[in-house]
Amino acid sequence: FIYVFILCMYLKLETMPVALARIDKSIYVATMDAMLTSFSVKGKKLFALKMPAAVSCMEVISVRRSKVAHALLVALDNGTVRVYSDKRHMHTVRRRFSTSHVWIPRD
User: DSSP string spanning 68-96?
Assistant: First the structure.
């Protein structure tokens, strides 16, 4: 096991982390074994999802309307970008080439 020290707490991971994102009170960690794991800010493991390919990068997107809605963009090595809201898979965008970086400009 690998222990990662983040925000004054230790997260127990199976393999090395690839990407890290925070949405509200959840921390999302993508690891080299194609797993997306969510932790609370206190370090408790909330859920883990197996991705169909290795994760290359992640980014948080925020949509502001009457409420603020957050989503997690997960780019995979097989050329797909998956959109998650909490642990629900919302949408998939397929590309011919793998995505090495996702950047969403902030307001």
Answer: EEEEEEEEETTSEEEEEETTEEEEEEE-S
Give every strand in the sheet of 17-23, ordered side by side. Answer: 17-23, 26-31, 35-40, 45-50
Please report, to the nearest 10 degrees, the dihedral formed by the alpha carbons of residues 87, 90, 94, 100 taken in order: -40
For residue 94, give both structure tokens.
């397929």
Strand 26-31 with 17-23, pairing: antiparallel
CA 97 to chain centre: 20
- pTM over the 0.90 mark: no
Reported as a single tens digit per residue, the pLDDT across 70-81 is 999 999 999 899
* pLDDT tens per residue across span 44-55: 999 999 999 999
